[in-house]
Amino acid sequence: MKFILFCITGFFLLSGGMYFWKQKPPSLESYKEMLAEFTKQQIETLEIQYTAEGIMASHEKELLKGQGYIFLDPQLLFQPYIVMDVKYTQKKGDPKEGKLLWSLMDGEMVLDTKSWEKTHGYEDFLLAKATSNDLKLIQAVIDGGGSIDREQLYGKFKIDSDQVDRWITSCRAKKLLFASGSKLKLHLQTPKLAQEPITLFAHYPVLSPIQNATKMKKKYSSTQIKGLLQKAFGEDFAIRKTEEIFLPIYQITVQNPDDSYSRSYWNALTGKRFEGYK
Q1: Buried-most residue among 69, 80, 195, 225 (CB within 10 A)?
Q2: What pTM value is reported for the model?
Q3: CA–CA separation, 2 vs 257, rounded Å?
Q4: 123-150, pLDDT tens digit by residue?
């Protein structure tokens, strides 16, 4: 008896469902809209200032080298960064507060978001696992105009010379310093380190609903970056707050006449190309 009632109930439910489906079946577009809403993410990004289409039009002659070269659809990617609220003391002893933007991909600091000028050297310190003493020695070399001799270092640190010699040996073993005659020099072709741990912001983060956001892979963790900063900027440096944000960039792909592809990457804030970026 229960089985018969179950069958009758199921028949009426199925019949009713089929009736309403025939009256107003869901469209393919409605399914697409539901899926789009489901796949949207709210992520903190720096606000896009240039479109991919605008960049492609402005640099068409550079990117399309002749007949048979064609643009493929550009891709929007997101590079991971951390933005930190920091406080520190300036060289003259005054306290200061500000924001600091640091890349989790190349381990460098952004000095100015308007030009996207960045430091060069901090990634080497990360890769070498530089210690606080390594960075003290490197700062002394920088303060000396890029080169300094041992006697000057002994006088600067006013500690046992054997200790300073151990620091020098450590930095040379890590390829952070090299000897040129009687001088020690920083082992970087064009070093650019921050005078102060602060970024000049012309663009601020916004919370954006991004559909199918493609986040690029981090090379460094925020813990690694914060550890480096504490060593680099001294005892009075403190991080009050940390957030992860993303820089929008475009991957612009060109199909060549021989069916190979060339890719270039462009900053969506500045409209400029990332040189040497793969």
Answers
A1: 225
A2: 0.79
A3: 72
A4: 999 999 999 999 999 989 988 888 898 8
Asked if 42 and 209 touch (Cβ cutoff 8 Å), the reply is yes
User: Where in the chain are all domains bearing CATH 1.10.10.10?
Assistant: 120-193
Q: Which residues of 263-275 are buried (b: 16+ CB within 10 A; e: fewer)?
A: ebbbbbbbeebbe
What's residue 38's pLDDT?
A: 40
Please determine, looking at this structure, whether the domain spanning 120-193 carries the CATH number 1.10.10.10.
yes
Q: Which residues pair with 136 in a beta bridge?
A: none
**Which among 50, 43, 77 has a CA at the least distance from the CA of 264?**
77
| 269: amino acid identity, one letter | L
- CA-based end-to-end distance of the chain: 71
Q: CA-CA distance, 212 to 242, in Å (whole number)?
A: 25
- Does residue 171 contact residue 138 with C-beta atoms inside 8 Å? yes
d(CA 24, CA 30): 12
Amino acid at 74: P
- CA distance linking residue 238 with residue 225, whole number of Å: 13
CA distance 109 to 268: 18
